[in-house]
Amino acid sequence: MNNHVANLQIGDHIGSGQFGDVHAAVDQVHGNVAVKIISQKEDQTDADWDAAKAEFLREAQYLAAAEHPNVVPVYHLGESPDGKSIRYCMKLCAGGSLQAPYEAGPMRLSQVRKAGTEVLLGLGALHARGMIHRDIKPGNILIDENGVARLGDFGLVTDELLHGYAVGAGYSDHLAFEFWEHGVTSAKSDIWALGMTLYRLLHGEAWYAESRPPRMVIADGGFRDTLKWLPHIPQRWRRAIRAMLHDDTDHRCQNVAQVQAAFAGLPVEPDWQCEVDGQQVRWRRQQGGRIIQVEWNRNSARRHDWRAWSEPVGTGRPRTLGGSNGQVGSQVAIRELEAFLRP
């Protein structure tokens, strides 16, 4: 990786990272690329900016050692001519990030397991080189032109910088218990952040937003016991994610290899397509020549109902498969749905 200002043609804004904006660009050597631009903030003194800039540039030197098929490569970096910004030139991943799928709704089990498995390979490579990602979240998982997940936007945040930027950047939901307790991060903090990311991908933004923001409760301890699960998420997935979110780092998954071992056996069938729309949750999947559908109405704590039916792909009649037989309480509805959705 070279340290210079390249002849870049900056194009459209395509995203925002923790510290700066990302633009599509054309590089004289690598062609179509992504460029992250980190600029001095309006309220930041020159002295503070110089210190932050030096830290960014110092840590960025480690990026050259992070070459891996599941890590977004950084081609070069440098300062702008006026010294007011830093530019990171990276591979442009044609599939974008997982932020948009997360915002659209819950991802399928098969999709999350594939992306999670690939991210773990990249994260393992970083940890093996003594690096910490520090910012694992849906927006920092990029999909390349071959549909492969790659970790991006890593290694640029020290513990000191986290204190100053985490809350404002929205990253604080993924900060592990030990950060709130002791102000430090480690490789095990990355495992926590990946657990949070997997939970979010499985549930989607609308469901995630129904609970109190994790940053408001993680410091109290026992956060993993507060997670609210969609009924179709299998117990093995829940146990694996809860193991990644243990407050005590001695009892959390100790390394990427442990997470990989747990991930390898996670079930993906039945692989429901789920949609959360206000107080209604719907599931859909094809089985043979029929489409199975489930609808859950969450009217209030004591007024839930659900029904399940199948429809033929071609001609034929719908078939009733189950339901709540009227209004039931939330816990009853959840137990019945779990029994139906996870046979």
UniProtKB/TrEMBL annotation:
SMART domains: S_TKc. Residues 8-264 form the Protein kinase domain. CDD domains: STKc_PknB_like. The keyword Nucleus does not apply. It catalyses: L-threonyl-[protein] + ATP = O-phospho-L-threonyl-[protein] + ADP + H(+); L-seryl-[protein] + ATP = O-phospho-L-seryl-[protein] + ADP + H(+). ATP binds at K36. SUPFAM superfamilies: Protein kinase-like (PK-like). GO terms for cellular component: cytoplasm. Keywords: ATP-binding, Kinase, Nucleotide-binding, Serine/threonine-protein kinase, Transferase. It comes from the Bacteria. Gene3D superfamilies: Transferase(Phosphotransferase) domain 1 (1.10.510.10). GO terms for molecular function: ATP binding; protein serine/threonine kinase activity. It holds the Pfam family Pkinase. Belongs to the protein kinase superfamily. STE Ser/Thr protein kinase family. STE20 subfamily. This is Serine/threonine protein kinase.
